[in-house]
Fold:
Amino acid sequence: MFTDEKEKLRQFYCDTWQKHLEQKPLTELEQQIAAVIKEHPEYHQIIENKEASVGANYLPEMGDTNPFLHLGMHLGIREQVSVNQPHGITELYQRLVALKGVSDAEHAMMECLVEMIWLAQQSQTQPDDISYLNCLGEIT
Structure:
């Protein structure tokens, strides 16, 4: 489910979680999404209130965390690791998990991922895999 329309993506997360709660069969992608949501009980109430959360604005300057962005970053990191792209990320991930556990490792990796994306946006260039990997290497 890849879309630029945030409401559709958020709806998909909410619907997936509802299917999980109802113990309905899930696609492979839905299983991945449900697993990440399950690991974040602090977001369950938000995800379960589809009407409020799908159209909500989460403003960092107001101290808000966007739960959908956060969950999506977990999924993105897991996808990177599963295909070892950028090359070497799987080994760095495994080292981080050994040091910090899965959740803390992924949260630490998110900081590097966010920095890479932000720098690419600021410079209007492609994301820099080498800088990303270097950042990950510094936290292992």
